[in-house]
């Protein structure tokens, strides 16, 4: 294949392997990760976080995909097995590689680079020439073909996707500094000193090329998205360094051609409770920054074949309502309501996420020992909360973070970043005030 001939880009995509990092224990998303891995956390009422990077790959014609995980992976296995089935006569696949004991090692993934290193034998077993390594907890749309095209055209060994951020945000990211040709010359992890930040600004010539004012103060933040040539990946992992961002990339900048691919679309790291909460509620906006209504680049997920949602006098203002819900005479305001949600009369849901249920209560006669039905009972108030799946909340229950600490562990709830979280399969008895 001529590396500069893109008339048939399928030759490139067919020789590219996508690797999605499933993350560690997901402690920043606890308790949503109490019984599931981070990529399996529900998103937007009917999706899972892992659907985002997988859909980006599929829409970019990358059909060879591995998801690396090690914590609470059972639900993730079920979801991927049911959601991503390709033609049996094609070579396309989405598979999970969980941490495992092997003759060469028995320890869990120590970091992103270590996770890839432990599975390198699988990744090299077929003649892939390019490896796209992705994070599993980000909300964005990207055509990876554009990233691969620039990678090949610039004859880079490694390419990183970067995002322009302002000075106030720069100290939260790993910041890359490039020359006008976008070759990365320096990397600083979460710089805070003013004099250091002054040396890391995007050059004026490059800013102008990107459509910005050349005097604007912007910095290139690493998005945790990498492209490696085959040999570059082999050599980069021939050591004991455990993380791409902290170890592999800074070292590679010194010895290899490392290029930045500057992405200017919407991107959000949803690895914390607050960012996850805000990203979900933003979906209720008239013009959300990320839209699931983009039919040209759809987000794929498990098809459930549920009935249409039923409204029985409910008042709904700025909300996302998923399939299979029954809403009685309730008030819903700026909330995301997940699949198979049941909300009874007199209840108010404000600025909250209901993740819904895995089954219908009537069909399975699901009851806990108190007899509390599945769903939200009558005359409840739920404000600034996340109600995880299969919660049984009785009548006259109030759930709000008002007057409580930013972080707190209760008997059947948690507060993180000022948001009340009711874990999966939890029962809240009637009359409870949280």
What does this structure look like?
The chain is of the alpha/beta class. The chain has two domains: 10-282, Spore Coat Polysaccharide Biosynthesis Protein SpsA, Chain A (Alpha-Beta Complex), CATH 3.90.550; 310-428, UDP N-Acetylglucosamine Acyltransferase, domain 1. The chain contains 13 helices and 29 strands. The strands form six sheets. Strands 15, 17, 19, 20, 22, 23, 25, 26, 27 and 28 form a ten-stranded mixed sheet that branches. It is globular. 42% of the residues are buried.
In short:
With 434 residues, the protein is an alpha/beta fold. It has 13 helices and 29 strands.
Question: What's the SSE blueprint?
Answer:
Blueprint: H1 10-13, E1 16-21, E2 42-43, E3 47-48, H2 51-59, E4 64-69, H3 74-83, E5 93-98, H4 112-118, H5 120-124, E6 130-135, E7 138-140, H6 144-153, E8 158-165, H7 167-170, E9 174-178, E10 184-189, H8 194-198, H9 204-209, E11 219-229, H10 230-236, H11 244-255, E12 258-262, E13 267-269, H12 273-282, E14 310-311, E15 315-321, E16 326-327, E17 331-337, E18 342-343, E19 348-350, E20 353-354, H13 361-364, E21 375-376, E22 381-383, E23 385-387, E24 392-393, E25 398-399, E26 408-409, E27 414-416, E28 419-422, E29 427-428
Parallel strand pairs: 1-4, 1-6, 4-5, 8-12, 14-16, 15-17, 16-18, 17-19, 17-20, 19-22, 20-23, 21-24, 22-25, 23-28, 24-29
Antiparallel strand pairs: 2-3, 6-11, 7-13, 8-11, 9-10, 9-11, 26-27, 27-28
